[in-house]
Automatic annotation (TrEMBL):
Keyword hit for Cytoplasm: no
Keywords: ATP-binding, Helicase, Hydrolase, Nucleotide-binding, Nucleus
GO cellular component, one term: nucleoplasm
Organism this protein belongs to: Lupinus angustifolius
Protein name: RNA helicase
InterPro entries to which the protein is assigned, alphabetical: Beta-barrel_MTR4, DEAD/DEAH_box_helicase_dom, Helicase_ATP-bd, Helicase_C-like, MTR4-like_stalk, P-loop_NTPase, RNA-DNA_Helicase, SKI2-like
Principal place of residence: nucleus
EC number of the protein: 3.6.4.13
Domain Helicase ATP-binding: 70-226
Molecular function GO labels: ATP binding; hydrolase activity; RNA binding; RNA helicase activity
The protein's enzyme class: hydrolase
Length: 1004
């Protein structure tokens, strides 16, 4: 610490310290959150003595943030450590464990995934012998002083009032930023809120800008101080490069000091090969996935990239992709590259086969087909693949080989960046679009930081290297946002579940309302209140400053304009519907269309200045993303129209092109643009001859000159002749006629209106519109304020309780009934549907293998296209499941149940979305029923892989989850005294728990 100094400031009185290095760069920031009314105790002599005797020493100098966090632990106070991946947060966890063991206390270490728990168990077991493991799959030494477990197990122990919860002194929550995970984040929130009041916490998190807010929440809920130690420090600094599509190399855009280089960024974008010249356009579309083989089978961009990395000695390298199949495909493209020597090849073979020797002879037949013939030769060359679809044992072999430096080039999905401490020298992003469960999107700055943090090995590399492959599809602003890398805030993803509500009702001190009140979600909502009140005052002041003469009369006139515009739109949409307009959109047809404008238009009656003319070239149906595209009638489909008109093409500062349609007389280039059918305003009865070849600029310019001449002649004769909707287009719709009559009536009212001839009418209307927008904004914020001051999810909780009462799970006095006791035990599948099937007698009447097959529908979530339909008896069971699910969803709908979808930007608050019955029913998938049935019947794993097209690892994960559900059903049956069902579920477990599917982890 000699080269460090503490910055003294007014903030330090509140506990905040900025610790700086001698070169005045910030090493870390230490802050502390106290609950209201907390009195800081004076340390006693015993505590001071303990501080002189560290619980654990390390064979290296500690970083400032590590020293600071450890001193907080020695005070016996909770701490949140927010630091980059690979910064060394595990040192703090190790010290907390050593300190607990020294003080003869119990400590819990929770992690988000089983694989990480297994790895941490191995690491801690080597350091401290008194360590146990609980993951659901495996239980080792549950009475140990230090227990490593998944967060889900810790939550269950709290609900089941396990004796461990009364003994624990310290709880370590690793990867606590997982709390923002949409599906599983709520488990962290529940676990933290319900943790014993006398326990202390260690929270380890990636960098989050609102770490202080999180610590404030912990201090408030647990009435104890919570320290924050935050650092942006990277032990190994990073350099960020762009690799442009079709370019000639790398461009350094962020240097090791974190400075963004704008000139280099622009050069990289300018060297992108424009996707315009025939073949190049097709090639560029395939480039980002690295699937393009050059002419004559030349090297791919990915191959060139890896070759360059190896030549520059930037290996080992992790290449991130977000598709399992793409990872394997890209790795196979490297097959002719050899990165290992003979000795390394021998070592790989020994490690590989010693792991595979754990499998039975039959299970070795499975890798024979795909992994030994494909994967082992690849591994021996120093090239590996890591994704969730691999066999768990193979995935662990690859992790071990990578840690040993025997894999130089690893193609991995995002899961490799979570928790596993396996850094490389270089990280490459081959693709930065991911499917998040709803849609494809660019990864966020925070996700980029998490994955790029794998670059740079501490004590080995001077710097880590991150390479982002970009093509024309990526907006320059998106690329800039990523490489500049702003961390994502830690926002609550709290949501209610029936299992949570029932367990809260059943717990001795449980109360769902208390859980909501103490949630981080509620805390963030309450925090937003002062800011919302301030916004309202500011907007009200701004609104009052807008004074308009004759405001009431102007409002009346404005309302008439709005009605007129609405009716005009109604008429326009009828006339321009495919049913009426397509037949007239022949090539050469003159049409008027909207100019592209960035200005906010003031509503006016006549909009000639916003229109221009163009010639129809062709039109085509827009392909729907829906699977039922073929069932859409032509008149209901959407269409795009290619129109020759005048445009201005501009490039913004970031190099993004924009095409703006302008009036024909303006300066610009003649260009064929694609517009939605509804952007066409009117159709003329005139047609103009189009030359066969419009590619030459001269041909397009001459054609537009003809159009201008035609328009000029028509205007001399009284205007451009238009197709009459009733006479020419034969529109007989009563809606059209009614709207047309109302438009005529409104136009006569305009002429007689007292304010119509008022000077500065446009400016007055603009001011009125601004005032109305401010009023709408104030109303919106007031609604948000109202929901913030109320208890979050209060209405949803009432609706869910209604559902539980109607189904007989709980009484109106919140007493949990027999069915409720069953649902309390089920947290790994849909608890209501599963409980209903159990009480309907479905499980009693079927064979064990059929029961296992049916339960697979609860755990399988991946979509398989063209999945074979299961056999008749299984299909009948699936229909029963669907009927039960439909009944459960229908009841929720009747009870006015809504799903709360939390916005990523908190102040938008949650949107209320009514449950979709059919979507809920479709969430149960029969795709692996046959495969699981065969497994339960005793088939070998290699045999069941022949009847399904899923990844081995994905199927193993599903069967393991299935075993988890069965274990919960055993406890559920036991809780209500159903001994026959309990025995049936136990038999089901014995039928599936075997061989490669439940092979022990290599880490254990």
């Amino acid at each position: 610490m000699s080269s460090l100094k503490r910055k003294t400031s007014e903030e330090e009185d509140n506990g905040r310290q900025v610790i700086q290095r001698s070169d005045d760069t910030v090493a870390c920031v230490h802050d502390v959150s106290y609950p209201d009314g907390y009195v800081i105790p004076v340390p006693n002599q015993q505590q001071q003595q303990q501080q002189q005797q560290p619980a654990k020493t390390f064979p290296f100098s500690l970083d400032p943030f590590q020293s600071q966090a450890i001193s907080c632990l020695e005070k016996g106070e909770s701490v949140m450590v927010s630091a980059h991946t690979s910064a060394g947060k595990t040192v703090v966890a190790s010290y907390a464990i050593a300190m607990s063991i020294r003080n003869a206390q119990r400590v819990i270490y929770t992690s988000p995934i089983k694989a990480l728990s297994n790895q941490k168990y191995r690491d801690f077991k080597e350091q401290f012998s008194d360590v146990g493991l609980m993951t659901g799959d495996v239980t080792i030494d549950p009475n140990a002083s230090c227990l490593v477990m998944t967060t889900e197990i810790w939550r269950s122990m709290q609900y089941n009032a396990s004796p461990v919860t009364r003994e624990v002194a310290w709880i370590i929550f690793d990867e606590v930023h997982y709390m923002r995970d949409r599906e599983r984040g709520v488990v962290w929130e529940e676990s933290i809120v319900m943790s014993p009041k006398n326990s202390r916490f260690v929270f380890l998190s990636a960098t989050v800008p609102n770490a202080k807010e999180f610590a404030d929440w912990v201090a408030k809920v647990h009435q104890q101080p919570c320290h924050i130690v935050y650092t942006d420090y990277r032990p190994t600094p990073l350099q960020h490069y762009l690799f442009p599509s079709g370019g000639d190399g790398l461009y350094l855009v962020v240097d090791e000091k974190g400075k963004f280089r704008e000139d280099s960024f622009q050069k990289a974008l300018n060297s992108l090969v424009p996707a315009g010249e025939g073949d190049r356009k097709r090639e560029s579309a395939k480039w980002q996935k690295g699937l393009m083989l050059g002419r004559g089978g030349e090297e791919t961009d990915i191959f060139k990239m890896v070759k360059m990395i190896i030549q520059r000695q930037y290996d080992p390298v992790i290449l991130f992709s977000f598709s399992k199949r793409e990872c394997e495909f890209l790795a196979m493209q490297m097959a002719k590259m050899d990165l290992n020597g003979d000795e390394e090849k021998d070592n790989i073979e020994k490690i590989f086969w010693s792991a595979m020797d754990m499998l039975s002879d039959d299970d070795k037949k499975l890798p024979q087909a795909s992994y030994v013939s494909n994967m082992l030769p690849l591994l021996k060359r120093g090239i590996g693949v890591h994704h969730s679809g691999l066999l768990p044992i193979l995935k662990e072999v690859i992790e071990i080989l990578f840690q040993e430096g025997l894999i130089k080039c690893l193609f991995a999905t995002e899961t490799f960046s979570i928790g596993l401490n396996m850094p490389a020298k270089t990280v490459v992003f081959t693709n930065v679009r991911k499917f998040d469960g709803d849609k494809f999107r660019w990864i966020s700055g925070g996700e980029y930081i998490q994955m790029s943090g794998r670059a740079g090995r501490r004590g080995i590399d001077e710097r880590g290297i991150c390479i982002l492959m970009v093509d024309e599809k990526m907006e320059p602003s998106t690329a800039k946002m990523m490489v500049k890398g702003a961390a994502d805030s830690l926002n609550s993803a709290f949501h209610l579940t029936y299992n949570m509500i029932l367990n809260q009702m059943r717990s001795e001190d449980g109360n769902p309302e208390n859980l909501l009140r103490n949630s981080f979600y509620q805390f963030q909502a309450d925090r937003a209140i002062p800011d919302l009140e301030k916004q309202i005052k500011t907007l009200e002041k701004e609104r009052e400053s807008i004074v308009i003469e004759e405001e009431d009369s102007l409002k009346d006139y404005h309302d008439l304009l709005e009605q007129h515009r609405s009716l005009n739109k109604e008429v326009h949409d009828i006339v321009m519907s495919p049913m009426h307009s397509l037949i007239y959109l022949q090539p050469g047809r003159l049409v008027s269309l909207q100019c592209t404008s960035s200005d906010v238009d003031v509503p006016t009656i006549f909009t000639e200045d916003q229109l221009t003319w163009g010639l129809v070239i062709s039109f085509e149906k827009v392909k729907s993303v829906s699977e039922d595209d073929a069932s859409i009638k032509p008149e209901d489909a959407k269409y795009n129209v290619d129109v020759l008109t005048r445009c201005v093409v501009r490039k913004d500062k970031l190099g993004k092109k924009s095409v703006k349609i302008v009036p024909l007389k303006d300066v610009g280039e003649p260009r064929v643009v694609t517009v939605p059918l509804l952007q066409i305003n009117t159709i003329s009865s005139l047609r103009v001859y189009i030359p066969k070849d419009l590619l030459p600029l001269e041909a397009r310019e001459n054609t537009l000159k003809k159009v201008l001449q035609t328009l000029s002649r028509s205007n001399e004769k009284g205007g451009v002749p238009l197709l009459d909707p009733e006479e020419d287009m034969k529109i007989k719709s009563s809606v059209y006629k009614k709207a047309s009559r109302r438009i005529e009536a409104l136009e006569s009212l305009f002429e007689r209106h007292e304010i119509a001839k008022s000077p500065l009418i446009k400016q007055k209307l603009k001011a009125l519109q601004m005032k109305q927008e401010l009023t709408a904004k104030i109303k919106s914020i007031k609604r948000t304020l109202k929901t913030s001051t109320a208890l979050a999810f209060k209405d949803e909780l009432k609706a869910r309780k209604r559902v539980l009462r109607r189904l007989g799970y709980a009484t109106s006095d919140n007493v949990v009934e027999l069915k409720g006791k069953v649902a309390c035990e089920i947290s790994s599948a849909d608890e209501l549907t599963l409980t209903e099937l159990m009480f309907n007698g479905v499980f009693k009447d079927i064979k064990v293998e059929e029961l296992i097959s049916l339960l697979s529908c609860f755990v399988w979530q991946e979509k398989i296209h063209d999945a074979a339909k299961p056999r008749e008896e299984l299909d009948l069971l699936f229909v029963q499941l669907q009927d039960t699910a439909r009944r459960v969803a229908q009841l929720q709908l009747e009870c006015k149940f809504y799903n709360a979808i939390t916005s990523s930007f908190f102040l938008d608050h949650e949107k209320q979305v009514q449950i979709d019955v059919e979507s809920f029913v479709k969430s149960f998938r029969p795709d692996i029923m046959e495969a699981v049935y065969a497994w339960a019947k005793g088939s070998k794993f290699y045999e069941i892989m022949e009847i399904t097209q899923v990844f081995e690892g994905s199927l193993i994960r599903a069967i393991r989850r299935l075993e988890e559900v069965l274990q919960q059903l055993i406890l559920a049956a036991k809780s209500i005294g159903e001994t026959q069902l309990e025995a049936k579920f136990e038999e089901a477990v014995s039928k599936i728990k075997r061989d490669i599917v439940f092979a022990a982890s290599l880490y254990l």
